Amino acid sequence: xxxxxxxxxxxxxxxxxxxxxxxxxxxxxxxxxxxxxxxxxxxxxxxxxxxxxxxxxxxxxxxxxxxxxxxxxxxxxxxxxxxxxxxxxxxxxxxxxxxxxxxxxxxxxxxxxxxxxxxxxxxxxxxxxxxxxxxxxxxxxxxx
Amino acid sequence: xxxxxxxxxxxxxxxxxxxxxxxxxxxxxxxxxxxxxxxxxxxxxxxxxxxxxxxxxxxxxxxxxxxxxxxxxxxxxxxxxxxxxxxxxxxxxxxxxxxxxxxxxxxxxxxxxxxxxxxxxxxxxxxxxxxxxxxxxxxxxxxx
DNA sequence: TTAAATATGCAATAAAGTTGCATTTATGTA
DNA sequence: TACATAAATGCAACTTTATTGCATATTTAA
Lengths: 144, 144
Prior knowledge:
- Two copies of one chain form a homodimer.
- By secondary structure, chain A is α+β, with helices and mostly antiparallel strands.
- Chain A has a single domain (10-138), classed as Winged helix-like DNA-binding domain superfamily/Winged helix DNA-binding domain (Arc Repressor Mutant, subunit A).
- Chain A contains four helices and six strands.
- Chain A has helices at 10-18, 25-36, 43-49, 55-68, and strands at 41-42, 71-74, 82-85, 99-104, 110-117, 128-139.
- In chain A, the strands form two sheets. A three-stranded antiparallel β-sheet of chain A has the order 1-3-2. In chain A, strands 5-4-6 form a three-stranded mixed β-sheet, with no helix packed on it.
- In chain A, a hairpin with a 5-residue loop joins strand 4 and strand 5 (110-117).
- The longest helix of chain A is centred in the middle third of the chain and has 14 residues, at 55-68.
- The A-B interface holds A 73-78, 81, 100, 102, 105, 113, 116, 118-141, 144 and B 73-78, 81, 100, 102, 105, 113, 116, 118-141, 144.
- Chain A binds a DNA duplex through helix 4.
């Protein structure tokens, strides 16, 4: 029989504090959900998981995580916006996601391939680069 | 004084025919608009330009262009979906856009950098690649 | 020229994103 | 610990974008 007990949430508190965010139940739950998941999450994923919270609250939770540099938005051409956890190297001012994102056309999941770095690119004269995103579409190892 | 006259629309007709689409005024107008524009277009761009057409018609026009391989959808993390013209090498079955997309954070325009090719990437074992997209965010030459 | 297939306009709805405001909760300080 | 202040939450409302059904109009092939 599975005994439900209080989990230690010190690590969640630390992450939120270090990003200058207040500690709330909603934020801790959402953050834990991100940490458990390998794949990126969308607003509707959160709504399905946390029916106890209003969708506006979840929307603003995502925004506060975005602004503080806990998560990053992943560009995609279809469906709702997806969000992935940032690395320690990210700060509110300067995001640092030079990893490739992969979207599986079978299961629909979007993954951060943290150890696959985006190759260098050069732009035509006069262009200033602020961020580079690379999204690979295909079939993931699990679905293949 | 500028004299308004009928333009030759044979090239539009040819493009539509070669993609197995019926020739209609709306499709010719939208296609011409794409050909004139360097930057990618969104649904709302079309709505602003072509107030004579219902937005559902424009929506379906975009879809028919997408399905037939005249345009491609450009992934982005913010704002409405953007669409860019395909090259001759694209067919309904197999799209071939290995060029980089650039989004200017100043003017908001998204451009196809047709001669900037997306670099090769390798995936972890078991992954199958179907498409690779690269989006560079920054400031374009005009806005810099 | 006409029948069949397709495109369009209108109405309606779904889904996603966003804001204002009253209430509740978290946090720093006395 | 209690309190004042600042921030988070829930609710309502609204905007934008995406989507479908159906009647009518247009295109195309025979």
